[in-house]
Amino acid sequence: MPEVTDELPVWVQVAGGLWCLLTVVLFVRQILWAYTALLGGS
Amino acid sequence: MSFIIFLVVTCAAVPAGAQFLRLTKLAPQALPERLLASATVGYVLVGYGTLILGLTGHLTAWAVAAMLAGFAVAGLGNWNLLWEGVLTGLNFLFRAFRMPFHAPIAAILLLIVSGTFITALEPPAGRDYDGLAEHLAQAAAYVRHAEVTPLWYDHHSHFPSNMQMLYSIGLLYHSEGAAKLFHWFHGIMALVAAFLIARRFFGPRSCGPAALVLAVSPMFIWLMGVAYVDLAVMAYGLVAVLAFLRWQKSGVPADLMLAGLMAGCGMTVKMQGAALFGILMLAALIMKPQLPLAFVRRLKWTVLAGIIGLMIALPWYVRSTLNTGNPFYPFAYSIFGGKLWSADRALAYQRHQLEFGLGDLPPQQELDAMPAWQRFLSGPREPWKWLVAPFGLTFMPWEYEVNLGPLQNLLMTSVGPLWLALLPLVLLLRGRPRALSRLMWLFLPLWVWWFMSMQLGRYLLPTLVILAPVAGYAFVRYTRGGRTGSYFAVAAVSLASATALGILMLLVVPAVPVVFGLETRESYLMRNLEVYEPSAYIAMHTPPNARIATYGEVRTYHFQRDAFWAEYGHSSLIAYNDMKGPQDLIRRYHELGITHVLINQAYLPDLWTSQDTTMRLLREAIRDGQLHLVRAFPVHRNYLLFAVSPGGGGA
Q1: Contact B46/B68 with Cβ under 8 angstroms?
Q2: pLDDT digits 0-9 by tens, B219-238
Q3: Please, how many CA atoms are within 13 Å of residue B356, restricted to the half-sphere of its CB?
Q4: CB B415 within 8 A of CB B433
Q5: A37 contacts B493? CB cut-off 8 A
Q6: pLDDT at residue B207 above 60?
Q7: How high is the ipTM of this complex?
Q8: What is the Cα–Cα distance from B641 to B643, expressed in whole angstroms?
Q9: Cα gap B522→B508, rounded to integer Å
Q10: Residue A28: how many other CB atoms lie within 10 Å
């Protein structure tokens, strides 16, 4: 069974992590936008 | 009671499935795999048993009980699988707490599984559109007549319907909760299968995140609480992929046969399962297993696996051929034709399917004028849209689903953000496991197929899930070491999980009173399903042999009477264009046994003004008193119920 043994370079981890976080934040932002649009009736 | 019915059927199905696998020598040695494969085969066998009872007109509670008892006896030697499976599951869960991140992941999974258990037990209401229109409605019609007969007004009833057979069992014992729990349980099977693929091929750290990526998908959470069929296609597909990857590693032919069998089981639920079946069989030829194996032997085993898969699914397609003349009815109309269908209906149906996705489909005249290649790559299928589709699916799900409004689409029919967040990260990884590339290559043609056919998010998820283990693996790699960089990925997954739990609460909290008996079913449905008001009236005030034709409405499950989708596009049973006046329409109603007509004006806003033939005939029949108003509904004023005049049509 393969197991993860090596660690990624810090820049890869940071860049990947930021992409990941940005995507999820944008998704949540979309929900908030849709919610406020619904409240505003637009 | 619902849970007990579900449990009894499952406890009869799983050991019977295990016995089938034992007899065919396809049973995997490892217990979790054996359990999943046994459940898959067992449910399909029970579905076929129910179909046989239905086709012979014996779909009664006693006959089904006898059938289940027969399955239970047939699987007697495998009952240990059930309790061993439960113990293994608990063992996995407790051992998971030893791994980094696995304790919170296990807690989130438990919350989602328990929360969706509650939504699965709520009466089918507004969120269960296809359940009310097709899956439960078909099963209810079969149960009412103790017979599985073609419902000619609904082309979906000719599709492979293994899940509808299971739903029939639930409804036969007066439990729609049990019916919905079958779908819910297939979601659990999918989670376990994603978990297992990750565990077997990416190591124990990846398994929790793999299941989590699927579990926090808003669409998955919604599907767990409705009577659709997509979770079954998803579960069987994942088990097929698991078996396929095992074969790639071990080279043992039984694993490939099992993959074919599991993918074939997917085709008993939905034609969509054929795509994965075809890709797996093709991949078995193209992808070389880890241990060297001569091509001729691979070819031989692949052909055998293909035959096994086709054999298990074949009866459904034979049934469709015998009934309609087309194994894929109403698709491929230009090749096979199809009873009570027509070229204009086929075209309208195709256009409806091709309209999903980013951008608009050009008008048909424009399409007809284009060369074939351009027609193929126009509208939502322009090539650049294939590249932006991952972003569209994540942030604009309303483009890839029936548009319910951005908020509802984001909360219910979105695949969620973690696929886009985690999957691209594997591109930066070096030293990727072999299985990762295998899964990516398996997904690629399915992704193209989805893009070129019907860009409905719900049709993508059952194939997207084969990448859940890949996403789980990416999470593990990017959080390994616990350095500063890892916190971003952890924060992202935590935020996505918190959002999913919020969505879960939005669905669970309103369901709690009705599930725990604090609110009556009627009051709950009155609040949450607009068609329930006319449905309850029909169920209470029309004779048991009434048949209700509907216009602008297809959600007929709660009628508890025979229904008939009467609009032109559904079938050619009512030849509106050949009718000279309303008397012809009424005569046809009589011939078809239609006693009432329900109109939902919300979807027919131009009912009183349109020059469309159907609308005009309806208007004239109402004006002439051949359709007389029985009930205008006080709460949902858009519904009107008419009775068909018994003497009409003779003029």
Answers
A1: yes
A2: 999 999 999 999 999 999 99
A3: 23
A4: no
A5: no
A6: yes
A7: 0.91
A8: 7
A9: 18
A10: 17
The single-letter DSSP state of residue B599 is E
Reported as a pLDDT band with limits 50, 70 and 90, residue B648 is low
Q: Which two tokens stand for residue B7?
A: 């449990």
Q: Using alpha carbons only, how large is chain B's radius of gyration in Å?
A: 25
The edge-to-edge listing of strands for the beta sheet with B562-565 is B562-565, B547-551, B596-600, B639-644, B627-632
pLDDT tens digit sequence for B60-81: 999 999 999 999 999 998 888 8
8 Å CB contact between B475 and B497: no
Please judge whether A30 and B406 are an interchain contact, meaning their C-beta atoms are less than 8 angstroms apart: yes
Q: How many CB atoms lie within 10 A of CB B444?
A: 11
Contact A1 B203 (CB under 8 A): yes
**Cα–Cα distance, B523 to B420 (Å, whole number):** 41
Question: From the candidates A24, A28, A36, A38, which should be mutated to test the interface with B, based on the most B CB atoms within 10 A?
Answer: A24
β-pairing, B547-551 vs B562-565, is parallel
Give phi and psi for A7, each to the nearest 5: -105, 150
Does residue B133 contact residue B556 with C-beta atoms inside 8 Å? Answer: yes
Residues 1-42 of A with CB under 8 A from B: 1-4, 6-8, 10-21, 23-28, 30-31, 33-35, 37-38
Question: Which residues lie below 8 Å from residue B60, measured CB to CB, with a gap of 6+?
Answer: B53, B146, B172
Taking the C-alpha atoms of residue B487 and residue B465, their distance in angstroms, rounded to an integer, is 25
Share above pLDDT 70 across residues of chain B, in percent, rounded to a whole number: 99
- Kindly tell me the burial class for residue B42, based on how many C-beta atoms sit within 10 Å of its own C-beta (0-12, 13-18, 19 or more): buried
Residue B478: partners with Cβ closer than 8 Å, 6 or more residues away: A8, A12, A13, A16, A17, A20, B425, B485, B486, B489
Handedness of CA B249, B255, B260, B261 (dihedral sign): negative
- Compute the distance between CA of residue B154 and CA of residue B118 in angstroms, rounded to an integer: 30
| pLDDT at residue B651 is higher than 60 | no
Of B253, B258, B233, the closest CA to residue B243 belongs to: B258
Q: Is some CB atom of chain A closer than 8 A to the CB atom of B516?
A: no
Helical ranges in B465-581 per DSSP H:
468-479, 484-515, 521-528, 532-541
